Write a sequence for this structure.
């Protein structure tokens, strides 16, 4: 036994010393914590970790010259759908769920995760497979085993809603058909607990719920909706999630969903397009993150309005004021796009532009997808920053995004875990 332990120790130390070092010469290097842009820095990497940053030259096994580039940590998208390929209309959605097999959607998903990585997003939190089972767990596994190229992934598997409140909508089809659902349906607190336990057993890192539906605008311009869960159901989900040391992400558009989700212990509010001041106050007090998913709302607004559903258009008319008020009240903003809800061929870095147009500095906008997003994932100091001990998740671009935020739509070079994926 002792002999085996000794051999194992030698093997571990051999594999550590066998890891090659890489020196990256950075023309400009962004410190996302302080917002300072440093000139002519050398980042030393060993294996998948950053070892040191210094202005003096350091010996390494190989050198990557990025002296003409702006270098920063890989971006983090806190709201994606890797097995969805855009669903502006309910027909787009139904076609994917009914006409595409889950293996086919998984194949398409391999392209989505690669796209995210090449877009400079070295980490994503994927919020629901929309009828594709536990495919997100498989994609994450394939990425981690190096079978396909993709970002670090936190996944939430099926998502949870109450019976009859989510597509595929049975009344759109012949009633005798047995149709698949875009998530896991529950009725009652026991089924809620069972769903959380089943999803965690299958590999869910987060639990995702749909807290409300049927959004509408009142005459005074405020928004309301129908809550999906009873208090017992949503609290059971929150309790089971938190007791399992997982976190809860809640799709919630108005106070009817948002406040119920906050009371159940949600860590993040997704979309929240119709939130009011009380929601903002509670979120700021409790340190709950907001992923506002701005581009997707604008992208779907007109198409859905033409089909007789103008609610996204109404959100679009009020969201800028809502955003400004939430920031002023101290709500923590995390970068989340909902890409997959819109086509993966469209920009993933577009929400930064809205943030800056609506009052954030370029640096504050960048922090939503670096330091703040790392905090949302409980990964402070490991991702979203380039510092000793962090993962070597690094991107480079020609332009300086602290001066032109749209530069983030063109990432020229991507490294994840010390390996270069885009050159
Ligand atoms: Zn979504």
């Amino acid at each position: 036994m002792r002999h085996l332990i000794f051999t194992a120790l030698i093997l571990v130390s051999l594999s550590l010393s066998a890891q090659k070092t890489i020196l990256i010469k950075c023309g400009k290097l962004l410190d996302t914590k302080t917002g300072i842009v440093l000139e002519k820095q050398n980042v030393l990497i060993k294996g998948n970790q950053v070892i040191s940053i210094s202005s003096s030259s350091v010996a390494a096994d190989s050198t990557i010259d990025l002296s003409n580039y702006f270098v920063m940590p890989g971006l983090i998208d806190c709201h994606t759908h890797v097995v969805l390929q855009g669903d502006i209309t309910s027909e787009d959605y139904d076609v994917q769920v009914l006409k595409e097999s889950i293996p086919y959607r998984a194949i398409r998903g391999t392209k989505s995760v690669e796209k995210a990585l090449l877009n400079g997003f070295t980490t994503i939190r994927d919020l629901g497979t929309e009828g594709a089972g536990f495919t997100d767990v498989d994609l994450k596994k394939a990425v981690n085993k190096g079978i396909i190229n993709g970002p670090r992934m936190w996944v939430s598997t099926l998502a949870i809603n109450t019976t009859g409140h989510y597509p595929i909508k049975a009344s759109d089809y012949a009633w005798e058909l047995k149709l698949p659902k875009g998530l896991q349906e529950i009725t009652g607190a026991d089924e809620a607990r069972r769903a959380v336990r089943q999803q965690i057993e299958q590999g869910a890192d987060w639990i995702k719920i749909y807290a409300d539906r049927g959004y509408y605008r009142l005459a005074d311009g405020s928004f309301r909706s129908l809550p999906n869960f009873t208090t017992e159901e949503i609290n059971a989900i929150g309790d089971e999630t938190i007791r399992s040391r997982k976190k809860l992400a809640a799709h919630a558009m108005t106070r009817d969903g948002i406040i119920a989700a906050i009371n159940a212990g949600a860590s993040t509010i997704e979309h929240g397009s119709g939130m009011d001041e009380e929601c903002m106050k509670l979120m700021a007090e409790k340190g709950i993150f907001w992923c506002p998913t701005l581009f997707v709302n604008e992208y779907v607004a007109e198409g859905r309005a033409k089909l007789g559903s103008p609610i996204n258009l109404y959100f679009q008319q009020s969201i800028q004021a809502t955003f400004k008020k939430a920031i002023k009240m101290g709500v923590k903003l995390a970068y989340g796009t909902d890409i997959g809800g819109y086509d993966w061929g469209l920009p993933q870095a577009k929400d930064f532009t809205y943030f800056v147009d609506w009052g954030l500095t370029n640096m504050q906008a960048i922090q939503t997808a670096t330091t703040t997003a790392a905090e949302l994932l409980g990964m402070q100091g490991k991702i979203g920053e380039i510092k000793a001990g962090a993962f070597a998740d690094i991107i480079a671009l020609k332009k300086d995004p602290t001066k032109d935020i749209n530069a983030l739509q063109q990432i020229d070079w991507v490294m994840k875990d010390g390996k270069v994926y885009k050159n």
About this structure: The chain has 13 helices and 19 strands. Residues 79, 81, 127, 338, 341 surround zinc ion (CB under 6 Å).
